[in-house]
Amino acid sequence: MQTFFVTYNTGEYDSYYEHVYSIDAESKEALYVEIHEAFDAFVDYQKKYREELEKVKEYRSTSKTAGEKQYKKFHGMLKDFFEKYKFTNDFVVYGYEIPSFDETMTSNKDDAFEKSSLEIHSVEEYIEFVRPKKRM
Q1: How does pLDDT run across 102-131, given as a tens digit for each residue?
Q2: Which of 19, 49, 73, 123 has the lowest CB atom count within 10 Å?
Q3: Alpha helices in the chain (DSSP H)
């Protein structure tokens, strides 16, 4: 196993945030594949999460004349939903949770990776990447 640094950014303007994580993997390629799979798993989970939440919301009454029984049923379904589907906003990469890209649910995978400026560096590459420039 070798240690790699995964760097990317999320947010814009005032909420801009640079992420740096060290993760052990067999190779850069293996880590890249794992991040791709984590992306796909996250998107699939979020779609399922949203679909199931919409099913629960169908029972929510917006009527002022709804009865206590209807409200209890809705809140019971909502409680069951939150016990079954935990909210997550992270990718799981080799067991580590890292925040998802901003464009994960709104762009295709390649665009999301590009917009987040995802890079994977070996330890030596990362040291050179963050080293300040020398004055001549």
Answers
A1: 888 888 999 999 999 999 999 999 999 888
A2: 123
A3: 28-57, 68-84, 109-116, 123-130
